[in-house]
Amino acid sequence: MKHSRRITLGAAAIAASAALILSGCSSSSGTGDTASSSGGALTPVKLQLQWFTQAQFAGYYAALDQGYFADEGLDVTIVEGGTDIVPQTQLADGAVDYAVAWVPKALASREQGAGITDVAQILQKSGTLQVSMADKNITTAADLKGKTVGNWGYGNEFEMFAGITKAGLDPATDVKLVQQAFDESGLLDGSIDAAQAETYNEYAQILETMNPATGKLYQPSDLNVIDWNTEGTAMLQDAIWANTEKLNSDQAYQDQTVKFLTAALKGWIYARDNPEKASAIVVAKGSQLGASHQLWQTNEINKLIWPSAAGVGIIDDASWKQTVDVAMTAKNLEGTTVITKAPDSDAYTNTYVQKALDALKAEGVDVTGTSYKPITVTLTEGGK
Amino acid sequence: MTMTTGAGLARRRWSALLWGLLGVVLLAVLWEGYKAIGPPTGVVLFDTSILPKTDDRSMPHLVDMLSRAIEPVNTSAGSPPVWVAVIGAALTSLGVAAVGWAIGSVVGFLIALLMQRLQVAERAVLPWLILSQTVPLIALAPVIVAWGGKIQIGAFSWDRWMSVAVIASYLAFFPVAVGALRGLQSPDTIHVELMRTYNAGWFRTLLKLRLPASVPYLLPALRLGAASAIVGTVVAEVSTGYKGGIGRMIIEFAQSGTSDPAKAYAPIAGAVVLGLVSAGIVALIGLTLKRFNRQEAAS
User: Fold this and answer.
1) How far B188 CA sits from the closest chain A CA (Å)?
2) Does ipTM top 0.85?
3) Which CATH superfamily groups domain A38-125+236-383?
4) Domain extent listing, chain A
5) Tens digit of pLDDT for each residue in B255-283?
6) B146, A202: Cβ pair inside 8 Å?
7) What is the DSSP string of A227-283?
8) What residues in B contact A288, CB-CB < 8 Å?
9) In chain A, N or C terminus with fewer CB closer than 10 Å?
């Protein structure tokens, strides 16, 4: 009796695991965010992000949600990043068609042989800050002298090193540099005087935390920030990169790039004009961070894009030059620079983004956002 | 020391459960105890942190973790409570890990068969097996994702979850291969020679002697493989950014670690439970083979 019960149990377990395996297999659908193709042959296109779904990429999700990609005949799949996914490598390997990456990191990959070209500069300004408590009186890079300064490493630190050097300090001896986790707990418990933070993410996380001294959330007035844009060592961040070889030889890829950029920029314009809706689209795409945090992020990303005098996505020569200068001269603690020689002429091109802008202007869309005004976002504890 | 009476068996089960619970309580007491008496800034010796900080951000109270687990994930409409989301993510991970475990077990067993059949194969392959487990997972993940991204055969296209399953199977096949080989080689010479006197060929010896004899070695190996598959799945999810599973959820919740520290512990607990559940499922599968499992039955 007992024997047969055991066998029944075991058989049930086998059946259960078989069901699990099948469910694992069937979970295949719905892993990517594929645009619903309403008949007609759409060209499949993959876009690789640097990180998980969040409002930093609101424009692409808005373009997908509003059907802008489908309007251009593209069936776009947005591929999320992971801790070990390097977008520019995925692009150079041909696993995806376009990738979003920071300019200095992508330039470093180019120097190592990745054949990629910046075809649209979405963020015109750097979002990186060095945040400190107001009572420490750290408002410029020169004030960092003798302080404990946090940085993330992994190539995120060069603006700061250039800023410290520019202020006449030696990063190796005049400041105490510490490796910072990807959160702001070091700043809040006082083990770091000035911590690295992105305006659209980590800075908001500080403002979502209860200040034990006041019993309210931390306010911007409780904090000082060093903005590398004003210090003059900012580097260009999120840009859309394309495959250089295909750009130079493949007519279909060139046309597709213009279409892709047209739809993506239209998505960013949608996010500018409808920040609440764009944020809701991102939340609906399964971001685990809360709604108020995503709205903050959408708004801050908008501030880094708009107003865009030459048109959204145009790569500004001066900003590019500053990025390359810092990338070639700023040394980190190991004494290395991001790149060793100036990038060749394939590193960026405004050809495709200009065509995309012309197409958008012909539609009567405002591509410069001269009258752009950011909204006011109220953060809640924990960003829920 | 087998207890044969039903009452003895029941008593042993209860005491096992009791000890298990005691372990959990002990862990809770350790956590809260250290939090109560430990210095808030932690213990730092020569600039190296020896003991963790005890403030609420670094070590939230267990009560906070539990109460956070029953609140919704975020304020968007229809957001499920954290524990429901964790269970959903755990089931997704379990499905992917099961695929990885199944592939890994089959491959591992086939390799073991090959190594048993051909001594030269054992000499040639075994060092490679050991070498394979020294390759760090984080080096492997991007490569598998990049290769997978190029596979497109007709309507079939490679999905991210398949990369995760492959990485899980890569971890799971090793204990199975080694354990199965030990098991297949476990029959005494006298038994092998008996089979020879029966004029039984390799296949018949395998079927009648080696396979039954391998069961006591195979079952722990399969359990180990299941645990490895879970670890592989969680790490690979983080590494490749596969959405929906528990590993990805750990990272996403940890992102709000500054402002909502208690939230991150729910998926970690979920991952632990997942490991236990998978080992339990394999143990149940093992029940069908109880007849061959003399050693495990006695333990």
Assistant:
1) 28
2) no
3) Periplasmic binding protein-like II (3.40.190.10)
4) 38-125+236-383, 128-231
5) 777 778 888 899 999 998 998 899 889 88
6) no
7) EHHHHT-----EEEEEEHHHHHH-HHHHHHHHHHHHHHHHHHHHHHH-HHHHHHHHH
8) 73-74, 249, 252-253, 255
9) N
